[in-house]
Design a protein that fits this description.
By secondary structure, this protein is α+β, with helices and mostly antiparallel strands. The strands form 3 sheets. Strands 1-2-3-11 form a 4-stranded antiparallel β-sheet. It has a 4-stranded antiparallel β-sheet with strand order 4-9-8-7. It has a 3-stranded antiparallel β-sheet with strand order 6-5-10, with no helix packed on it. The longest helix is centred in the N-terminal third of the chain and has 16 residues. It starts with a helix and ends with a strand.
Length: 226
């Protein structure tokens, strides 16, 4: 188990070292314009933790995953490798995990959990065509740019979920990253919201609705630029 995660981490690190080659070849089809951050600064969460933010087009985005709140594995939830050094390292590097309601409740004044349109705006700024941005599922373009430290540096924390048991477990750290929006899909009956998924190897971003109560994902907040 330990060796597996070390290997995954090494692969992700190797990809990051190639960032100048991988992240500058951003698509500009349709009428898309690739926009680099035009401003940056710091903000604080409700617990007083400090984060970087960057301005892309008309929005300010957190450039780190939210770390506020109590870590799930310290609340009695069962993990496949609970309280281990590896688990603690994932939390330290990737931030905490939140249900949709928790993500909304942790939002500091002046910021918001991104809407689906906020994510589309960011994807378009990072090279995704309008047609692809409006699609559901895996969409071409913007994936590598979104995980680049040159933009908002989305990372690959995996997720907490309760797929097969009554216990929350940590899945696939270093293999993909999942991020909430606050926008529900109108054609899905159960409480849900659109999410974004990125992986280390693909220049693609997945957009799908996810259950609001049985998955705990990473969080970035956004605000309209002042």
């Amino acid at each position: 188990m330990v060796m597996t995660y070390k290997i995954r981490h090494f692969i992700v690190g190797a990809l990051a070292c190639l960032s100048p080659l991988l992240f500058t070849a951003c698509s500009s089809d349709d009428d898309t314009t690739v926009i680099a951050p035009t401003a940056s600064g710091t903000m604080q969460d409700l617990n007083g933790n400090t984060y970087r933010w960057v301005r892309i087009d008309t929005l300010d985005w957190m450039a780190e995953n939210l770390r506020a709140g109590t870590r799930w594995y310290r609340q009695g939830s069962k993990f496949s490798w609970a309280d281990s050094t590896e688990c603690a390292n994932v939390f330290a590097e990737m931030g905490n995990y939140y249900s949709l309601l928790e993500a909304l409740a942790q939002c500091p004044d002046g910021w918001r959990l991104p809407t689906d349109d906020d994510w589309k705006s960011l994807e378009r700024a990072c090279g995704m065509s309008r047609e692809q941005a409006e699609a559901v599922g895996w969409r071409k373009g913007a994936g590598r740019r979104l995980v680049s430290p040159e933009t908002i540096g989305l990372c690959f924390g995996g997720e907490l979920a309760a797929y097969y048991t009554a216990y929350v477990e940590l899945y696939h750290p270093y293999e993909y990253g999942l991020y909430w929006s606050q926008t529900p899909a109108s054609d899905v009956m159960s409480p849900n919201a659109y999410i974004r998924k990125v992986t280390p190897a693909l220049d693609e971003v997945q957009r799908i609705p996810a259950p609001a109560t049985s998955r705990w994902l990473s969080v970035r907040y956004v605000r309209t630029a002042k």
